[in-house]
């Protein structure tokens, strides 16, 4: 297949790009794109560059953000192209540049997540050499008023948890990934240690079931991974829905798990409902 060679140049975004970028994304998702709300944080981020593609006049017509999740993993997000310049291969060129930038940063993998309906990003992933790693399905749980019974697990549980993730059927389905908000991480020993230290690995005292639960930046929380005996898992997930705050958002708990995962039955029994934001996670292997 022949693709037009684009005249894009690439550079880090700068403060003077604000107006052009905001105009570029003004119609995305009916005017509700998150880029304006996160612009300042991305512009000054130390975890990876926000990049723009420009034409001869230096005006941005394409955008993306690289975020270093770990020393080995880069995450690609915020890929945007000015509507006036779509269909010219600019998204493809932007992603190619992101791949090169991630490699220069010494990363082993580059990943991104996109909606199940975004066939353009699916096609670009296949054309550029990404592989489909996971197809998470969206589940949401409304808040239940009350004090939750779960507690952060202590470091003494680490050996048992490591043994469990090494044999985890769920991680085999997800290519070893778990979700925190809209980002997929590898569930490594180091990652699990960090989540334990942060108090994000939780369970009900006396039970074996456990989950990784993180606070969501839009309110409520996110269940990134969950495992254990079924009845205990149902009990834990139901407790995750509890909050003493009567003003929590309706989508208080969010979760992304693949179709066919055993945890889905536990989510349903705990009162969760399927949502609308099903997704795909793609991985590009940059090296060993």
Give an overview in words.
The strands form 4 sheets. Strands 1-2-3-4-5-18-6 form a 7-stranded mixed beta sheet, with helices on both faces. Strands 9-12-13-14-16-7-17 form a 7-stranded mixed beta sheet. The model has no long low-confidence stretch (mean pLDDT 94). With 288 residues, the chain is α+β, with helices and mostly antiparallel strands. The chain has 2 domains: 9-107, Gcn5-related N-acetyltransferase (GNAT) (Aminopeptidase, 3-Layer(aba) Sandwich); 138-280, Aminopeptidase (3-Layer(aba) Sandwich), CATH 3.40.630.30. It has 9 helices and 18 strands. It is globular.
How is the biggest beta sheet arranged? Answer: 7 strands, mixed
Query: Quick one: CATH superfamily of the largest domain?
Result: Gcn5-related N-acetyltransferase (GNAT)
Radius of gyration: 20 Å
Looking at the overall shape, the CATH architecture of the largest domain is 3-Layer(aba) Sandwich
The count of helical stretches stands at 9
Helix content: 25-40%
Question: What's the number of extended β-strand segments?
Answer: 18
Poorly predicted ranges: none
CATH topology name of the largest domain:
Aminopeptidase
- What is the CATH class of the largest domain? Alpha Beta
**Helix-and-strand structural type:** alpha+beta
End-to-end CA span:
30 Å
Short description:
The protein is α+β, with helices and mostly antiparallel strands and 288 residues long.
């Amino acid at each position: 297949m022949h693709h037009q060679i684009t005249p894009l140049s690439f550079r880090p975004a700068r403060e003077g790009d604000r107006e052009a970028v905001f105009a570029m994304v003004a119609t995305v998702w009916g005017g509700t794109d998150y880029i304006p709300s996160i612009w300042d944080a991305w512009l000054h981020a130390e975890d990876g560059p926000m990049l723009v593609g420009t034409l001869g006049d230096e005006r941005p017509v394409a955008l993306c953000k690289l975020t270093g999740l770990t020393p080995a993993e880069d995450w690609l997000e915020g890929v945007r192209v000015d509507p006036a310049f779509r269909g010219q291969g600019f998204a493809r060129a932007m992603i190619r540049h992101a791949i090169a930038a991630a490699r220069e940063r010494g990363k082993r993998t580059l990943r991104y997540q996109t909606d199940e309906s975004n066939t353009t990003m699916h096609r670009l992933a296949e054309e550029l050499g990404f592989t489909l790693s996971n197809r998470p399905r969206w589940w949401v749980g409304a808040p239940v008023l009350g004090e939750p019974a779960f507690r952060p697990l202590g470091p003494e549980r680490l050996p048992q948890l490591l043994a469990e993730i090494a044999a985890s059927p769920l991680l085999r389905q997800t290519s070893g990934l778990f979700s925190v908000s809209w980002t997929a991480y590898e569930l490594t020993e180091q990652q699990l240690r960090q989540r334990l230290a942060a108090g994000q690995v939780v369970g009900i005292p006396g039970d074996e079931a456990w989950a990784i639960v993180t606070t969501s930046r839009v309110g409520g929380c996110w269940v990134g991974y969950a495992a254990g005996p079924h009845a205990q898992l149902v009990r834990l997930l139901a407790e995750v829905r509890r909050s003493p705050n009567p003003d929590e958002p309706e989508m208080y708990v969010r979760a992304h798990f693949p179709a066919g995962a055993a945890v889905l039955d536990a989510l349903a029994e705990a009162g969760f409902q399927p949502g609308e934001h099903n997704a795909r996670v793609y991985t590009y292997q940059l090296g060993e």
